[in-house]
Predict the structure of Glycerol operon regulatory protein.
Amino acid sequence: MSDGPTLIGSVQRALHLLDAVGASARPVTAKQLARTVGVPLPTAYHLLRTLVHEGYLRKLEDGYVLGERLRPAGPEHASQRLLTRVRPILRALRDELHGAAYLALYTDGEIELVDIVDGPDTPTADLWVGAHEAGHATAFGKCILATLPTGQRADYLARHHLADLTPHTITDVRTLEHTLATGGEVFDDRQEYLLGTACLGGVVHGPGVLGAVAVSLPARRYRATRAAARAMQRAAHRVTRAAAADAVTR
């Protein structure tokens, strides 16, 4: 007769699913979770459905995130908390401007790409250089750099070489500073990060958050229209409000 505790397997599996979702900064699909936890996919679906019903998880279009009953605390989970509010805004932006949508945040002195919403007709750009190394060459990076206080922007530029990614990339600090000073709340990248790809971004700036939303699309389709700029500003303002609401409810 065993002296060990009596363990309930289904409870263990549910807890392991919660751990796996909480460890990811982006939504996790049922198939990924089943593989990670090591359970059959039908079992994963049953457990996930229950966890969603009870509010421990939330199901988004492309995966699961922690639900309201497990709202994660601490700065290391800030992006996932914000993600549950922002994902519908990114989907709407993708559909309105017909390009993959992105959310980037300025965290601990670095520009971090924290979420992407794409689709079969709106594929993600080839992210061949990390966001933290390409702030000068991306629309979302310019949005963030333009919003930083002068001293913080100078510190960032002193720590990051303006790499020559394409023939269109701005590699001179004075030219970049002039661009940042004249862009307002919307910036674009016309094949500066990747040949054949253009990007439009809007500033997200509110209590406790500095970042940007952006959309990428083939350069041949890009048109810097007022309508597109207004759509980007609307999305950026919605994300700013979502971030403010998240800060209030923590």
Q: What stands out?
A: The chain has two domains: 9-70, 75-249. The chain is about 45% helix and 20% strand. The domain at 75-249 is CATH 3.30.450.40 (Beta-Lactamase). The mean pLDDT is 87.
